[in-house]
Write a structure and sequence with these properties.
Chain B: Its main location: membrane. The structure holds 2 protein chains of 2 kinds. By secondary structure, chain A is mostly helical. Helices cover 77% and strands 1% of the residues of chain A.
C-alpha cells in the first residue's frame, strides 16, 4: 500500500514540476517578446517544450528503472529510483527554461518529440506479432524436443492425459504413455469448418447478392443492421445456443431417420458456426459486389440479357476474386473459432467422417490442455503451443492469400475502397 | 438457325423465370439469416426470462441462542427443506450484526431453495410429493410466490443456483474493459495518426500496415497463448486478474481501433489540411486542431465497436484463467476476477437445470449491454458523421 502512496506522490510532484515549468517558461518567453525581440515560437510553445523536457526524461528513467527492477531483478530501492526521477525532472526544468531563447524553434522541437512518440506507438503492433511468434514458437520448440515432430504430424492418437503420469515418473505403470498425434484434431477441425462453410457461403453470398442487385433501398437499409447485430453476438452465446438448443435438435432429427447421433455431435457446432459467419461473408461480399463497376452491368443489360443472367454471368465472375478472398478469411475465422466448439463439440479425439459423432478440434484441445492443473512446462501444456503454432501458420497463410486475391481484384477494377 | 417467334418468346419466358427464381432464392437466403436472429433471440428470452424471477416463501424465523448455534432450527421443520441453504448460512451473522433481533420471531419472506423455485416455474425438480403439497398449500395462502430476482443482479457466483448472480462478473468486466481501453485507445489512435498523417511511405510503414491487417485476422485464442506465455509466465502478472485479461484483450482490440481510426482520418478531406497548412500550422497542429476534432465521432464509433467486441470475447480469457469461481466482486486490478462471458461459460457447464436458466439470463444481460453499446455507436455515427 505504501508503494502506491509513494508512487502517487511521485506523480503529483512530477505534475507540479511540469506546471511550474510551463508557467515559468511561458512567462519568460512573454517577457522576451514584450521587450521587442522576435521569437521563433509562441510563449505557449516554449511552455509546452519545458513541460516535455521536465517530464519526459524523468518518466523514461523511472520506466527503465522499474523495468530493470521487475524483470532483471536489479537491486534498486524504489525510493532512490523515484528520487533520481525527480532530480532529473528538476534538471530538465532548468534546461527547458534555458532553452527559452529567441533563436530556438520550440514548435519544431515539440513536433519531433510527438512524431517519435507516435512512431513508438506504431511499433507496438509489430511487437505484438513478435510476441505471439516468440511465445508460441518458443514453447512449441520445447514441445518438439519432448515429442517427435513426425509423430505430431502423422500420429492418429491424441492422448495427452497420460503425460502427467510420466511426469510423475510413473509412465510405465497403468495406462498407456501420452500420445500426441494431431491428425484426429485436424480432421475434426476440418469437418466442422466444412459444415460451417456449407452454411455460411451460400447464405452469406445469397444475402449479399440480393442486397446489392435486387433489394429495394428500404430493405437494404433494414437488413444491414440485422446482419450487424448477428455479427455482434459474442461467440460464447452462440456456443450456448449450439449446446442447449441445436445439438438436442440434431439428435432428435437424426432419431427420426433412425440415426444415432451424439449429444456433442459435430453438426451442431458446425451449423451454428456457419450462422455466425454469414454476416462476415455477406458484408465482405457486399462490398466487393458493390464495387464491380456498373458499366459492366449496363453493358450486359444493354445486350438484352435478364438480370439473373447478368448476376450469374457478369457480376459474380467479375467479383469472384473478392468473393474467394472473403471465403478464405471466413475459413480462417472458422478454424480459429473456440467457444462454440468448446461448448458444443466433443472432447474425445475421434477420426471419423460422420458428422453425427462427436469429434474434437484444435482449439478445444488447446483450451483443454491449458485449463487443467498442469505445470507450465509439462508436455500437455506445451502441446497447446504446438497446436497454436500450426493454427497461426494456417490462418496467416489463408490471410495472405486472401490479401493477394483482393489486391488482384482491386487492380483489375481500380477500386480503392477495399 | 431460325427460331419461330413462339419458340423465342417461350425461351424468353423461361429466362425471366430463371431470373426471378434467382431473386427469390437470394431473398430467401437473407430472410433465413434474419429469421435465425429472431429464433435465436426468442430462444434466449424464453430460456432466460425465468432467471429474473426467484421463488420466495414466507416463514416464521425464530431468532434465539439455539438458532444461532444451529441455524436450521430457526425455521419450523415443515418448511426447513424449502428454504435456501444460503439463508441459514448468513443467519448467525445477521444476529451478530443486529442484536435486537435476539429472542424475537418474525414472519418474513426468504429465498426459497432451488427445487421450490423450479417447481413453481413448472420445471422438473427434486421435491418429494409431500414437499410439493406443502408448497401448494403455501401458494394457496399467498405465502410462496415468484418475485423479481434482485439477488441475480447483486451477487457473484455461487454453488447454489438461487444465490448465483451476475454482479461480480459485471464488475470484473468493467475493470477488465477499463484496462483494455486505457491501453488500446491511446495506442490505437496514436498508431493510426502516425500511419495516416506522419509516416513516410517506406518499407517499415508498409510492414506495419500489413502487420496490423494480419493481427486483425489472428484467431483470438492465440492472444490468450501470448497472454499466458508473456504476461503471466514472463512478466509475472497475476493469473486470472483483470490486469492480465485487460492487457490481453487490448492487444486483440488494437487492430480494430487502428483500422477504424484510419478510416475516420482518411474520410477528412485534404482541403481542410491544406487550409490549415496554408495559414502556417505545423503538422501536429493540423492534426490536433483540425483533423482529430473532425474525425472524433468516427474514432469513437470504431472504439465502441471494438469495446463491444472485447466485452464478448471469452477464448483468450479462458487461457489466462479468468474463468474462475468468484463469489464476491473485488475492485482491484490484481485479484482473481471473472467477466460476464466467462461467467456464462461457467454456468453453461453446470448440469443443473437452474443453472441453464442462469446461463440464458446472463446472456440476456450481456446482449442488452452489447446492443446498447452498438446502438450508441450507430447513434454517434448518424448524429455526428459529416459527408464531405
Amino acid at each position: 500500500m505504501s508503494t502506491n502512496i509513494v508512487f502517487l506522490l511521485f506523480c503529483a510532484v512530477l505534475v507540479g514540476l511540469g506546471g511550474v515549468a510551463f508557467v515559468l517558461s511561458r512567462a519568460k518567453a512573454s517577457r522576451v517578446r514584450a521587450s521587442g525581440t522576435l521569437m521563433h515560437a509562441q510563449p505557449d510553445q516554449y511552455g509546452w517544450f519545458a513541460v516535455l523536457t521536465t517530464a519526459g526524461p524523468a518518466l523514461l528513467v523511472s520506466a527503465l528503472g522499474a523495468f530493470a527492477l521487475l524483470l532483471l531483478g536489479a537491486e534498486i530501492p524504489v525510493l532512490y529510483l523515484l528520487a533520481a526521477g525527480l532530480i532529473i525532472a528538476a534538471l530538465g526544468l532548468v534546461l527547458g527554461l534555458k532553452q527559452v531563447r529567441p533563436d530556438f524553434h520550440a514548435r519544431r522541437a515539440i513536433e519531433s518529440v510527438i512524431r517519435k512518440l507516435l512512431a513508438a506507438a506504431a511499433t507496438i503492433s509489430i511487437l505484438t506479432t513478435l510476441g505471439i511468434l516468440i511465445s508460441i514458437v518458443g514453447e512449441a520448440i520445447s514441445f518438439f524436443q519432448l515429442h517427435s515432430f513426425w509423430d505430431f504430424v502423422t500420429g492418429t492418437t491424441w492422448n495427452p492425459g497420460a503425460s502427467f503420469l510420466s511426469a510423475a515418473g510413473r509412465g510405465d505403470e497403468g495406462g498407456s504413455a501420452a500420445q500426441f498425434g494431431s491428425v484426429p484434431l485436424f480432421a475434426g477441425t476440418f469437418m466442422i469448418t466444412l459444415i460451417a462453410m456449407l452454411v455460411a457461403i451460400p447464405f452469406g453470398l445469397g444475402a449479399a447478392i440480393y442486397m446489392v442487385e435486387f433489394a429495394p433501398l428500404t430493405v437494404r437499409k433494414a437488413a444491414k443492421p440485422v446482419l450487424e447485430v448477428l455479427a455482434g453476438i459474442p461467440t460464447v452465446v452462440y456456443g450456448v445456443f449450439a449446446a442447449l438448443t441445436v445439438a438436442p435438435l440434431v439428435v432428435d432429427i437424426a432419431g427420426l431417420f433412425g440415426l444415432d447421433a451424439s449429444y456433442s455431435n459435430a453438426l451442431a457446432p458446425g451449423l451454428v458456426m456457419g450462422i455466425m459467419i454469414i454476416p462476415f461473408i455477406s458484408s465482405l461480399s457486399d462490398d466487393v459486389i458493390n464495387s464491380v463497376p456498373s458499366s459492366l452491368r449496363e453493358g450486359a443489360l444493354a445486350l438484352g440479357i435478364t438480370k439473373g443472367e447478368m448476376v450469374r454471368n457478369v457480376v459474380v465472375p467479375a467479383a469472384a476474386p473478392g468473393i474467394i478472398s472473403a471465403s478464405l478469411l471466413a475459413v480462417s475465422r472458422a478454424l480459429g473459432e473456440t467457444m462454440i466448439v468448446v461448448m458444443a463439440a466433443g472432447m474425445r479425439p475421434n477420426l471419423t467422417a460422420n458428422p453425427l459423432e462427436d469429434m474434437t478440434t484444435v482449439t478445444v484441445s488447446i483450451v483443454a490442455a491449458l485449463t487443467g492443473d498442469q505445470e507450465f512446462g509439462s508436455a500437455q501444456t506445451l502441446s497447446a503451443f504446438a497446436l497454436g503454432l500450426v493454427l497461426f501458420i494456417v490462418t496467416l497463410t489463408l490471410n495472405i492469400v486472401s490479401v493477394i486475391m483482393i489486391r488482384r481484384f482491386r487492380e483489375k477494377y481500380r477500386v480503392n475502397n477495399l | 438457325m431460325s427460331q419461330s417467334f413462339e419458340e423465342i418468346s417461350a425461351q424468353l419466358k423461361k429466362r425471366h423465370r430463371r431470373s426471378a427464381r434467382m431473386k427469390w432464392l437470394t431473398m430467401g437466403a437473407l430472410i433465413l439469416s434474419a429469421a435465425f436472429l429472431v429464433v435465436f433471440i426468442s430462444d434466449m428470452v424464453v430460456r432466460g426470462w425465468p432467471a429474473f424471477q426467484q421463488a420466495q416463501i414466507q416463514v416464521d424465523v425464530t431468532y434465539n441462542e439455539q438458532s444461532k448455534e444451529i441455524p436450521l432450527a430457526a425455521v419450523s421443520e415443515e418448511f426447513r427443506p424449502l428454504v435456501s441453504r444460503g439463508f441459514f448460512r448468513i443467519l448467525p451473522l445477521r444476529m451478530e450484526d443486529n442484536p435486537a433481533l435476539m429472542g424475537t420471531t418474525k414472519t418474513q419472506w426468504v429465498i426459497a431453495d432451488s427445487p421450490v423455485d423450479q417447481y413453481l416455474k413448472g420445471n422438473k425438480n427434486e421435491l418429494s410429493s409431500s414437499q410439493r403439497n406443502v408448497v401448494d398449500k403455501l401458494v394457496k395462502q399467498g405465502r410462496a410466490e415468484l418475485k423479481f430476482n434482485t439477488t441475480f443482479f447483486t451477487t457473484g457466483d455461487s454453488k447454489m443456483p438461487e444465490l448465483a448472480g451476475i454482479a461480480a462478473a459485471a464488475i470484473g468486466t468493467m475493470m477488465t474493459m477499463l484496462v483494455t481501453m486505457a491501453v488500446c485507445f491511446p495506442i490505437g489512435v496514436m498508431t493510426a495518426v502516425y500511419l495516416e498523417e506522419f509516416a513516410p511511405d517506406n518499407k517499415l510503414t508498409q510492414i506495419i500496415e500489413i502487420n496490423i491487417n494480419n493481427l486483425a485476422a489472428v484467431p483470438s485464442i492465440l492472444f490468450g497463448l501470448l497472454g499466458l506465455a508473456i504476461y503471466i509466465s514472463f512478466f509475472g502478472v497475476p493469473r486470472s486478474s483483470p490486469l492480465v485479461g485487460g492487457l490481453t484483450l487490448a492487444l486483440m482490440t488494437l487492430p480494430v481501433i487502428i483500422i477504424s481510426t484510419r478510416a475516420a482520418l482518411r474520410s477528412v478531406p485534404d482541403s481542410i489540411r491544406h487550409a490549415a497548412f496554408g495559414v502556417g500550422c505545423s503538422r501536429w497542429q493540423v492534426v490536433r486542431d483540425h483533423v482529430l476534432p473532425v474525425s472524433l465521432p468516427g474514432i469513437l464509433t470504431g472504439s465502441i465497436i471494438g469495446l463491444a467486441q472485447a466485452m464478448g470475447e471469452t477464448a483468450p480469457l479462458i487461457i489466462v484463467g479468468m474463468v474462475a469461481f468468484i463469489p464476491e466482486a473485488s475492485m482491484t486490478l490484481t485479484d482473481a476476477s471473472t467477466v460476464m462471458p466467462a461467467q456464462i461459460f461457467t454456468w453453461a457447464s453446470q448440469p443443473e437445470a437452474a443453472f441453464a436458466e442462469k446461463t440464458a439470463g446472463g446472456i440476456l444481460v450481456l446482449l442488452a449491454v452489447l446492443i446498447f453499446l452498438n446502438a450508441l455507436a450507430v447513434w454517434l455515427r448518424n448524429k455526428f458523421e459529416r459527408r464531405w
